[in-house]
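Weekly modeling sync, notes
Attendees: S.R. (lead), two postdocs, one rotation student

Agenda item 3: backlog of single-chain predictions. S.R. asked that every request posted to the team notebook include the full sequence so nobody has to chase files. The rotation student volunteered to paste the first one in as an example of the format we agreed on. Action items at the bottom.

Example entry:
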Amino acid sequence: MAAAPRRRVRKATPVEPVPAEPAPVKRREPAGLYHEELFPDGSVRPVRNVSRSERESGQALSDFFGVQPQLSSAANVRTMESVLASLVSKMDISVAEHAPEVLADAWSKAVGPFLATKAELLSIARKQARIRTSHPAVRFELMRQKAAIIRALNKTLGEGCVASVQIVHG
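Predicted structure, as returned to the notebook:
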């Protein structure tokens, strides 16, 4: 039998690896703290950017306590008009009885022309009349006549409108 020819095995020489070109990294410009998002009602509102760990911890809290995460995009769904409407509806404002012209007229009728020129009725809020004067003698006279001023303002503006008087120096 004939012997098979022997193959000669070459030893491999170490080859230095050719460094591959790194893939270009797409970097986003920092978007800032907020971005705009389109909501189902058709409005576009700013929403706070949240990192992945913040989203995951918010979701975990949401799952555990059964509430919406504080920084979710659905957490701020009220428009400015709805906020203003709710604030105005909570305010105790009746018609135009507290307009500056009405207050000035009621003030001059309540205290007379002399004191009306030396002191000013600023506002009536929560049944308290705020009066401003810069004269110490007028301030003393107004303090002395508080009960009469309250009665006169209630007679002019309507019963129960004024319950107390605050006199400010200025």
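Discussion: group reviewed the output briefly. The first strand starts at residue 34 and ends at 38.
Action items: rotation student to repeat for the remaining queue; S.R. to check formatting next week.
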